[in-house]
Amino acid sequence: MNSEIITPEQLQEAYKDTKLIPVTSLAQVKFYVEHGVQPLLVYPSERADIMAFWYPKKDTYRLYVDYRKYINDKYQVGE
Question: pTM of the entire structure?
Fold first, then answer.
């Protein structure tokens, strides 16, 4: 990643052909990191006093589906 990128806007400009998503759940970030996916940028979230970890959607979508299944199975959500 270019060390000049320090804001989500600059990241979006640099990756204009890629859908980027911010993730604020630390459990979800931990899950991604454990599966070899690193964020492109860590930046304070606009919605709260927490950090947002920015990922390319293409790198996280399949893992997100697996993560939701893991959470649903672990906590028996939806039953």
Answer: 0.74
